[in-house]
Amino acid sequence: MAVCATLDRAAQRIAPLIAANGEVSETQARVIANALAFGYFAALEQWHLDGGDRPIADYVEEGMRLLRGIWSAPHPSSRRDLPA
């Protein structure tokens, strides 16, 4: 439970920095911040399960590569997705 609380506090501190550029809403910034904080923890866990033979940065980079692909994809307008 302490780990989740720590990650949540970290995400709360990171979210305003992400939202500061004005490209994402505060809600989107909170989601991104949580993905970053909990994603790092997941990378650390996988690194440990794999025996710690590779640098943890490799695990973080592999996960971030996927997120970058998602984040850089064009975002369709939410209005277009609504039924007429």
Number of strands: 0
Termini Cα gap: 45 Å
Secondary-structure-based class equals: mainly alpha
| Main sheet properties | none
Shape descriptor reads flat
Helix proportion = over 70%
Q: Show unreliable segments.
A: none
What does this structure look like?
- It contains three helices and no strands.
- The chain has helices at residues 2-19, 26-49, 56-72.
- The longest helix is centred in the middle third of the chain and has 24 residues, at 26-49.
Which key phrases capture this entry?
0% strand; mainly alpha
What's this, in brief?
The chain has 84 residues and is an all-alpha fold. It has helices at residues 2-19, 26-49, 56-72.
Strand-helix topology:
Layout: H1 2-19, H2 26-49, H3 56-72
Helix pairs in contact: 1-2, 2-3
